[in-house]
Amino acid sequence: MSAIINYPIPKGAVLQQDFCVKLRAEGDREWQETACYQVKVDMHEVRKASMVYFDFSGTVDVEITCPALYHIYQVDIRPLSAGIKAEFTPKVIRFRLDHPQKLSVEVNGERFHNLHLFAGAIPANVPDPNGDEVLFLPGDLNKPSIHRTEEMTLQVSGMKKNRTVYFGPGIHYLEECTMRIPSDTDVYLSGGSIIVGTFILSGVENVRIYGRGCLYLARFERFSGLNAVRISHSKNIRIEGIHLINPPHYSVYIGGSEEVWIEDITTFSCEGWSDGIDMMSSRNVTVKNCFLRTSDDCIAIYGRRWDYNGNVSHIRISGCSLWADVAHPSIIGTHGDYEQEGNILEHREHQDEYLGCLAINAGDRNTIRNITYENIRIEPFVHGQILDFQVKCNPDYNPVPGKGIHHVSVKNVSYSGWGEVPSRICGYSSEFSVSDIVIQDFCVRGEMVHTLEEANILTGSYADGIEIISLS
Fold first, then answer.
1. Pair 367, 406: CB distance under 8 Å
2. How far, in Å, CA of 209 to CA of 188, rounded?
3. 289: exposed, middle or buried (C-beta count within 10 Å: 0-12, 13-18, 19+)?
4. Nearest partner of 268 among 317, 195, 192, 324, judged by Cα
5. pLDDT per residue as tens digits for the range 117-133
6. Predicted structure pTM score
7. pLDDT tens, 5-42?
8. E strand or H helix at 150, and its extent?
9. Which residues are CB-contacts of 51 (< 8 A; sequence separation ≥ 6)?
10. Of the candidates 272, 266, 232, which has an alpha carbon nearest to the alpha carbon of residue 249?
11. CA distance 221 to 226
12. 32-34 and 60-65: which strand pairing?
């Protein structure tokens, strides 16, 4: 049986009026209208895009109109690999979904004032707001709620372990903009909740942040340095299902932590240094089925940085859609322990030093080895390159070069666009080299390539053992 959960919109939420979105479950006659949140994208020329989210089971029909447009003549739904073809007239767009999707609906070729549509599965195991060991903050759809976070922390600390803080629908302001979450605590953001502020997890264990609500930080200035979620020296952390809207710094900051699981989240940013998910000196991190649209790196994996020391290992990223309005969809290795012996680390961009959808830039005496890129589809981008594997010394960030890149597998990667900058694989010196790079079943513009020349890959000095093979 088909069903839709169309979450309430609190009064005072920042909305965008470019699209009118209606939903209808299979078998229903009536359409349900849902409003679109405003999300800001692209730091070079900040623009206001739209986001809508809902959950469903079975099959749902989606109808979209664009009040400000006189004529709809083109509709693209990305990722193209989802294979969703919309039917449209000059005034109305319609398509059907039969399983959860994270989509960009682009009308008349517009990718910056587009509609981000997040259709999720109906959540299971929603906590009871009136259950034992639950701090219920009901919220109010008609006016904001303000919470003294010190009092909240005291209340939570007085409860038994495996307690829950439950934010109900409405806008919630955190006093002093932060909430420090203690160990053995769940934080649930119900659909229709908007929390203005940041969650900090410092030196804690066994914390879960989940639900369908939003962390909203669009009103904070760039140099406030606020992250949506900061995980520091912590263990066994889960973040699931929530929406992170325009933090001035990282969406999820992970430093010196281990056993971190991030699944099904969505993020937007439009400031310099507003990366998506960054991890420093951390281990056993999984990022799964997320949508990241950022104005700096979507995913960044670093060694030592600030007060985080140690190696990075056992990082797995899968099933994600990465959209970098600026910088890299993924980057490994820029920062490390340049004062000691270094660490072992397991796109619309025009600056030459920051190109590469799949980038490994070994600096700061980092050694990067045993990396696998597999089953990745790269859709047409404005400007950039596919691969950038370099041992380098970036004068803006690296006092010293990296020590090497070794044992990298690139398997079943495809690119469907045109005009990309040539990919690069090169070392820094005979001592700090690149070796053992195997590129298998690399497809460019629908054609399997058999040579580095066909793949548009340039190899520089101090790069050995680079192989391109096709088994398909």
1. yes
2. 6
3. middle
4. 324
5. 999 999 998 999 999 99
6. 0.90
7. 999 999 999 999 999 999 999 999 999 999 999 999 99
8. helix 149-157
9. 16, 36, 37, 38, 39, 115, 116, 117, 118, 243, 245, 266, 268
10. 272
11. 9
12. unpaired
